[in-house]
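::Encoded backbone::
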Amino acid sequence: MAFLKYSLIRLALFVPLFVLFAFLQVGLVAAAVFAGLVAFALSYLFFQKQRDAATAAMRERLSGRAKPLRTAGEVEDAAVEDNLVEQNPEIGVNNDKRPGNA
């Protein structure tokens, strides 16, 4: 959530700056470059707390310690599978997707 918040702040800085530079007729590519540089500088100078929170969230997500994100369908499938195994102990489920493991 922190990464999304920081990204939205950067986008909220970029868009009006892009419109301003485009309105000043510096060219669309130049307007995008200038808006990106100014938005980067402003976010770097004034949004350190949000940037640090976004960095911590990304570090946690990419560290391998974070809980995997599961879709509602995956959660429902897992619940159905758990019920099936509990009701029929003779059924075995092999979730190992590596080749050669049957």
Notes: Residues 20 and 31 are 8 Å apart (CA to CA). The helical segments are 2-23, 28-46, 48-62, 72-87. DSSP finds four helices and no strands in the chain.
